[in-house]
Specification:
single chain; alpha/beta; TIM Barrel; 18% strand; 4 iron, 4 sulfur cluster binding; Organic_radical-activating; rSAM_sf
């Protein structure tokens, strides 16, 4: 069962983390089973404005925001990861929306402001897909500081980080198959693969 697979992940990991965009279509029991063996969720919030989010990502942000609220209700530790993309998510309004949304979430340990970089562009080109951010350059330090300053107005003084340069995760990611491969491999577990990647790492808290 899935619990067996997830227990194997916990045994291997010092701090089992979920790295996810939170796009949960349906809250099957397997979601809670996974969260029970998770110490930390690293949640990507790309844009709080749904219209901009749909233009950027192609889908609504409603499911991701609902999942964030679900994690808050269950009091599961969360790191919010917000990529600052010039012209898409570097404006004051977007920062204020993020601050308001997370202000009363006591489970949010920190917010990481990640400067946009072009390291993933080649993947889109290789797939023959349109790269919507073509021509967009990394944000200036002043932009990152401005967004950080806005978030600090909402009580995030000690947990808003601006990592120096592109962030390369030091975790060894387990494949989604490794996380849920213990037989039987149920259909609802297959859906989980599109929702989450499991990282096995020592997360510096």
């Amino acid at each position: 069962m899935f619990a067996t697979g997830s227990a194997r992940v916990r045994k291997k990991a010092s701090t089992p983390c979920l790295d996810t965009n939170g796009f949960v279509r349906r809250y099957d029991p397997v979601i809670d089973e996974l969260l029970e063996v998770t110490d930390l969720v690293m949640l990507d919030l790309k844009q709080m404005n749904d219209e901009i989010h749909q233009n950027l990502v192609g889908v609504s942000n409603h499911r991701t925001l609902e999942f964030a609220q679900y994690l808050a209700k269950k009091n599961i530790n969360v790191w919010i990861r917000y990529v600052v993309v010039p012209g898409w998510s570097d404006d004051d309004d977007s920062a204020h929306r993020l601050g308001e949304f997370t202000r009363d979430m006591g489970n949010v340990e920190k917010i990481e402001l990640l400067p946009y970089h072009e390291l993933g562009k080649h993947k889109w080109v290789a797939m023959g897909e349109e790269y919507k951010l073509d021509g967009v350059h990394p944000p200036k330090k002043e932009t990152m500081e401005r967004v950080k300053g806005i978030l600090e107005q909402y009580g995030h003084k000690s947990n808003v980080l601006i990592p120096p340069g592109p962030v390369m995760r030091l975790c060894r990611p387990a494949t989604a198959w490794e996380a849920v491969s213990a037989p039987p491999f149920h259909s609802h577990e297959k859906r989980l693969v599109s929702f989450v990647a499991v990282s096995l790492c020592d997360c510096s808290r």
